[in-house]
Specification:
The chain has 353 residues and is mainly alpha-helical. The protein has helices spanning 3-17, 36-49, 61-64, 71-88, 105-114, 119-123, 126-132, 141-155, 169-185, 233-242, 254-258, 261-273, 278-285, 290-316, 319-348; strands at 23-28, 54-59, 96-99, 161-163, 196-198. It has 2 domains: 3-204 and 318-348, Rossmann fold, CATH 3.40.50; 223-315, Tyrosyl-Transfer RNA Synthetase (Orthogonal Bundle). The protein is built from 15 helices and 5 strands. The structure holds adenosine-5'-tetraphosphate.
Length: 353
């Protein structure tokens, strides 16, 4: 068995003894415009996993400031993401919901990882290249070091699994590389687990409603590119009606759909929201006009997202409750992370005189 596999197995054993599959860490940035992609790619899976894993769900505000955030908006958006977790069905008393900056171990471990990760590894990160674009000289150094902080988020809890959308796969691989290098460099082969990504569902990469080749994203300048979780029924209907399609009728086969990015995206969204396979949805609508499909998709999206959006609004109107959940979560997260950080510091050789 490889060292990496052995390290992971050693970390899984205590959870398996409790009838669980492992410990999960995942997070969403409080950067506004929480959208259907964040829901289908991540938050919905957070809910599905909470019966079989011990879960830590974080609002990653340290990540958010890698690009400029208005301070008052950041605080409001942080509460909004926590409210979305709860509204989607995360149990904040059984599991941990908190914001990243409340637990110092994230930033402290990230510094150690800045010194473990290699420049060449970060240079390969496609998300940095996409986000920095042509203005590389002017982006924050935090944006560049972002994947090291993400590794710290996960490994501060020795999390064994991370549910994410497709776009985060490369960052997860970097987390694994950092864990392996730390374990090897310091001669502690089982110290960090080699974390597994959990990427599942029919919509692991939801695309923009305006361009089927671009990921649905919070920062897209067009509001019509995304369905936001707090959109009301009218807004959802309008966005789906205006969603870009091609002039042909609905595809007959999955292979045909896959050659038509906009159709494929809408079919994937329908399949995910209805808990069906894309094959089933393609056969149900094969050869029909897009207008009929869009109208069915609108009904489905309103039925599935409406109650969650309403619950988010209700929770946002009661910030005391959301803040109490996050405060309690932060205390429990800190209690888990601090002994791990202490052990990292001892391992690295930091003196505690
Ligand atoms: N389009 C998507 N489809 C499926 N999953 C997605 N995720 C994001 N977009 C999609 C997943 O949502 C989780 C939280 O993402 P994040 O907020 O931490 O960061 P992000 O990937 O940078 O999100 P955005 O919305 O695309 O923001 P901007 O516009 O700021 O870049 C992650 O698990 C992610 O995979």
């Amino acid at each position: 068995m490889s060292d990496a596999k052995a390290a992971t197995n050693a970390h899984l054993a205590p959870y398996q003894a409790r009838g669980l599959k492992g410990r999960i860490f995942s997070g969403v940035q409080p950067t506004g415009n929480l959208h259907l992609g964040n829901y289908l790619g991540a938050i919905r899976n957070f809910v599905a996993l909470q019966d079989s894993y011990e879960c830590i769900y974080c609002v990653v505000d340290l990540h958010a400031i890698t690009v400029w955030q208005d301070p008052a908006e950041l605080a409001k958006q942080t509460r909004e993401i926590a409210a979305a977790y709860l509204a989607a069905g995360v149990d904040g008393s059984k599991h941990i919901v908190f914001n990243q900056s409340s637990v110092p171990a994230h930033a402290q471990l990230a510094w150690v990882f800045n010194c473990v990760a290699r420049l060449g590894w970060l240079n390969r990160m496609t998300q940095f290249k996409e986000k920095a674009g042509k203005d590389r000289e002017n982006v924050s150094t935090g944006l560049y070091a972002y994947p090291n902080l993400m590794a710290a988020d996960i490994l501060a809890y020795k999390a064994t699994h991370v549910p994410v959308g497709e776009d985060q796969k490369q960052h997860l691989e970097l987390t694994r590389d950092i864990a392996i290098k730390f374990n090897n460099d310091f001669g502690v082969p089982d110290f960090f687990p080699i974390t597994e990504p959990l990427i599942f569902g029919e919509a692991t990469r939801v695309m923009s409603l305006r361009d089927g080749t671009k990921k649905m994203s919070k920062s897209d300048p067009s509001d019509y590119s995304r369905i936001v979780l707090t959109d009301d029924a009218d807004a959802i209907a309008q966005k789906i009606r205006k969603a870009k399609t091609d002039p042909l009728p609905m595809p007959d086969t999955v292979a045909d759909a896959e050659k038509r990015p906009e159709a494929d995206n809408l079919l994937g969204i329908y399949a995910a929201l209805s808990d069906s396979s894309k094959e089933d949805i393609v056969s149900a609508f094969a050869g029909q006009q897009f207008s009929a499909f869009k109208s069915a998709l609108t009904d489905l999206a309103v039925a599935k997202l409406g109650p969650m959006g309403a619950e988010m609004q209700r929770l946002m109107a009661d910030p005391g409750h959301v803040d109490a959940v996050m405060r309690d979560g932060a205390a429990r997260a800190h209690a888990l992370a601090q002994p791990i950080l202490d052990e990292v510091y001892r391992t690295v050789g930091f003196l505690r005189p």
